[in-house]
Amino acid sequence: MENSNIPFQTIDWKNVPRTEHKGETGIAYWQTLQFDGLRVRYVEYSKNYKADHWCEKGHIVYCLEGEVVNELQDGSRSTLRKGMSYIVSDDLSSHRSVTENGVHLLIIDGDFLKSNA
């Protein structure tokens, strides 16, 4: 759904279509709302998920349930647990997600996260 303005709306995620994205290991399930310059996703990573690529995109990520390890290409790692968030602008880090027991995330990204670097 493309829109330049976003009217007030509630989202019942049970009614948002779910797409499957295979990782290097495991599977990611995305439920996506797309607006002009804004993407909002409910994302579930399966047990033993490891992303199949290094991501350069900016995100605001909120952990709803479970735990995910964020690996940066420079070798650093951080763990996101229920109730925690991270934020990064486009092109400021190469990162990927890894889970042992699975995780549920709310991920928001869009034009407002473009890097000025």
TrEMBL record:
Alphabetized SUPFAM superfamilies for the sequence: RmlC-like cupins
Signal peptide start-end: none
InterPro entries to which the protein is assigned, alphabetical: DHCW_cupin (IPR047713), RmlC-like_jellyroll (IPR014710), RmlC_Cupin_sf (IPR011051)
UniProt cross-references to NCBIfam families, sorted A to Z: DHCW_cupin
The name this protein goes by in its record: Cupin domain protein
